[in-house]
Amino acid sequence: MSKPVLRFAPSPNGPLHLGHALSALVTWDAAQKLGGMALLRIEDIDTTRCKPEFVAALFEDLHWLGLSWPEPVLYQSERFELYAEAANRLRAMDLLYPCFCSRSDIAQNATGTDPDGAPLYPGTCRHMSNAERIERLERGDPVQFRLDTEAAMARTGLLTFSVIGPSVLDRPQIRYARPERWGDVVLQRKDTPTSYHLSVVVDDAAQTISHVTRGRDLEAATDIHVLLQMLLGLPAPIYFFHRLLLGDDGQKLSKSKGSQSLADLRAQGWTPDDVRRAVGL
């Protein structure tokens, strides 16, 4: 059998913090325990917010932690054509449709919230006539393309995925996926031919990822990933969801909240062992 392959896939839109360190260390530790290897993947589909200096900084941070990985590193920004091809396969199944709703439109007509707490899209444009779709597309109206989740689930039927934990050496347990709680998710935008959901499943398959280690904040997103894997005929990895690090406010650490960076901690005299102790490893 092939050796297990895992990956750490940060977005270079800011400096890494202790939460990223936990995720990276969990991934490399898991690869060692499983007798496999860990890859580094740069998830930079947001070409506006992702910067080369952040990529250079995360390389420095990870090397400082004592981590190494095979080269070359995969950059998602170099793979837009592959993601567009995957989206076109879904479009050929009549599972992708254009949506012209603004955020305020969605907020005003939402039917609830998704697992992330965002307004749940009510499916407004799913029922638009082809003539109106063509007219608005030709007019150049702002557009994004959504997965018809109900139709997709009618194709796949009941979906399950394998989860391990609390140890990566535990026997996998079967869990049911519930994509319906996400509604019709966005898979493409006018200015970006992919989304996190679409690119991650394409790349996990391309890199033969056998085990996905991710924070519990991304556990629910697995619903959509399992659905896309089934639709696109891609292999399904085993999932391991690790705990999150919380700040003094009880919320997870994040770049947007200015959580203290690894570079700052290093400048203060922290060592890699200090980081391991701080994240509980």
What's this entry about, in short?
The protein is an alpha/beta fold. Helices cover 37% and strands 15% of the residues.
Structural features, described:
This protein has 281 residues and is an alpha/beta fold. The protein folds into 2 domains: 1-72 and 245-280, HUPs (Rossmann fold); 79-207 and 215-236, 3-Layer(aba) Sandwich (Rossmann fold). Helices cover 37% and strands 15% of the residues. It has helices at residues 18-34, 52-64, 80-92, 103-109, 130-139, 149-156, 196-206, 222-232, 262-267, 272-279, and strands at 5-8, 37-42, 74-75, 96-99, 144-147, 160-164, 173-176, 186-189, 211-215, 238-242. A 4-stranded mixed sheet has the order 7-6-10-9, with helices on one face. The protein has a 3-stranded parallel sheet with strand order 1-2-3. The chain has a 3-stranded antiparallel sheet with strand order 4-5-8. α1 packs across α10 (272-279) and α7 (196-206) packs across α8. The relative contact order is 0.19. The mean pLDDT is 94.
